[in-house]
Amino acid sequence: MTSPHQLVAAIIPQPLRVTTIGRTFLMRKPVVYTEDFGAAADRLVTWLQRASGTPVQRGRVSTSSNIVIERHPVASDEAYELAVYEGGARIRARHPDGVSRAIATLQQLFPPAFHQPGGGKFPVELPQCWIEDQPRFPWRGLLLDCSRHFMTVDYILDLLDAMAAHKMNVFHWHLVDDQAWRLQIDRYPLLTEVAAWRVHNGVRHGGFYAKDDVRRIVAHAASLGIRVVPEIELPGHANAALNAYPHFACRGEVPPIEPRWGVYPDIFCAGLDDSLQFYRDVMEEVIELFPDRFIHIGGDEAPRDRWKECPRCQARIAALGLKDEAALQTWMTREIQTFVAARGKAIIGWDELQYGGLPPDSILQHWRYEECLAGAIAENHQVIISQNRHLYFDYPHDKDPRVHSRDTQRNDWMPALGLEKVYGFDPIGTLVPAEKANLVLGMECTLWSEFAPQELVHRQLFPRICAVSEIAWSSPRDRSFAEFSKRLDLHLLRLKAMGITPYDGPMASPDWQQIYPTP
Ligand code: TNX
User: Fold this and answer.
1) N or C: more exposed end of the chain, with fewer CB within 10 A?
2) Is residue 148 within 8 Å of 261, Cβ to Cβ?
3) Under DSSP, is residue 67 helix (H, G, I), strand (E, B) or coil?
4) Domains and CATH numbers, the chain
5) For a pocket test of ligand 1, which of 261, 367, 407 has the largest count of ligand atoms closer than 8 A to its C-beta?
6) Would you say the pTM of this structure is higher than 0.85?
């Protein structure tokens, strides 16, 4: 049994200030009351009902156990105050996002059993406490690659809940890559009829997100205070889309869709007006579906060899008076960026986008090339830190010989990334000079799924995402891995109750060579 005092001492991510008085409060089935934050209150009621298996009411403050949610001028939209006292609990925030973060904290004050449907019981003993909290960074993201492996809508909905429980607030949805295009686009039906599927060793793998699926995911995320940023790669990582529409490729033909990872040579032909029109059409439908101000346009790993030999691309370079193929990529990016900007949207791109100069208002997501990060910062662009050596959760947790020796595709480019290394990462003062810290919007961990079909995603993410939630949310003062590890021990009970099985030491990994033999 965990005591209420242990629970309040084991919140992840660590709040800014926690004051306790060593007393507890016995909460009977509470009444949830709010004047301003109805949707958040409903969500809390749903959680309490699921946890306890009994109906919980919204209503007037009357009983001896209340949970009250009030509007209050705290420091920022995500900031909140939470008190547990002799009459119940009180949440104060100025915005629904702050209420969402407070609920995540309040849930952790309940015994771990409450995180399992039907696992909790009233009355329940809660620690009396006073918590003031606000995030370090406004952007605390997770990239989920649903292209290399398809993930179901239900899986994503649950993952959003797990993100909210850790106060993560950006779901970066990687929907397009060489191995599949996953987003329904009405004007290009072959994207989901052809480009969402592959056959390997006689087995068909794939799936796509219909517009209604997207709307469900965006709505659920919004209810949790999570933004959804779609990524539509431009002009590279396009082999799947080009299988559906090969005439957009420089040579008019491309290799079949297969689980061969890495960088593919065929990208959209930049000399073809139809390629640009394709992206404009796609963006129009993307803009309709995703309310967030940002659209990620990739821009990474786009080899330009085909453009060098393509008469149409060369004609475009000549007509526009461009210096080379790199300038052609910059031009193409700008065409699409101005198109979305006219519709009120801004773009995010990977490091490589910086080589051609970043469009105004755009954000750089840093994964690998430090000179690009430095360049973006020098030009006062905002940046998101996803540096691969610390935040790529497709990398193995340990130097597990059973993974490393067998897995030739993976050996060279995926160094081991353990929990302590993640927790010890701070981009400020290392990657970014302290005087430019204000340009760091936040951090995002990535789950590229070449080696992680859905059933392995939890194992790759947890518990490393707990560490990221803390380095991105909590103040870096007094950070100690030993102390975090103690809190994590208890936190693992919460995860277990949520049905999440985290990584727990090396295990025999799937034999990828057998599953995906090198062609
Ligand atoms: C690099 S990060 C990629 C992805 C891969 C990942 C594997 C980036 C912009 N491109 O396409 O999935 O490495 O770790």
Assistant:
1) N
2) yes
3) strand
4) 4-133 (3.30.379.10), 139-480 (3.20.20.80)
5) 367
6) yes
Q: Please give the angle made by the CA atoms of 132, 444 and 231, to the nearest 5 degrees.
A: 130
10 Å Cβ neighbour count for 230?
23
User: 349 C-alpha vs ligand 1 centroid, how far in Å?
Assistant: 13
Atom of ligand 1 nearest to the CA of 298: 9
pLDDT at position 512: 59
DSSP string, 219-273: HHHHHTT-EEEEE---SSS-HHHHHH-GGGBTTS--PPP-S--S--S--B-TT-H
CA dihedral 398, 400, 406, 411 (to 10 degrees): 30
Dist. CA 261 → ligand 1 center (Å): 10
What is the rounded CA–CA span in Å between residue 292 and residue 279? 18
CA of 448 to the centre of ligand 1 (A): 7
Q: What is the DSSP letter of 418?
A: -
299 vs 406, which has greater pLDDT? 299
pLDDT digits (tens, 9 = 90+) for 100-120: 999 999 999 999 999 999 999
Do residues 364 and 349 lie in contact, with contact meaning Cβ atoms separated by under 8 Å?
yes
Separation CA 361–CA 295 (nearest Å): 12
pLDDT at position 519 is: 44
Interval 362-414: pLDDT, tens: 999 999 999 999 999 999 999 999 999 999 999 888 765 545 544 555 555 67
How far does the centroid of ligand 1 lie from the alpha carbon of residue 115, in Å? 34
Q: Whose CA is nearest to atom 6 of ligand 1?
A: 448
Q: How far is the CA of 145 from the centre of ligand 1 (A)?
A: 10
Distance between CA atoms of 116 and 139, rounded to whole angstroms? 28
pLDDT at residue 223 tops 70: yes
DSSP 3-state of 44? helix
433 to each of 258, 331, 352, 428, 429, how far by Cα in Å? 42, 31, 21, 6, 5
**Atom 12, ligand 1: which residue's CA is nearest?**
448
Tell me the CA–centroid distance for residue 370 and ligand 1, in Å. 16
Give ligand 1 pocket residues (Cβ under 6 A).
300-301, 350, 367, 392, 394, 448, 450
Decide: 26 and 4 in contact? Cβ < 8 Å: no
Nearest CA to ligand 1 atom 9: 300
Rounded-to-integer distance, Cα 131 and Cα 98, Å: 13
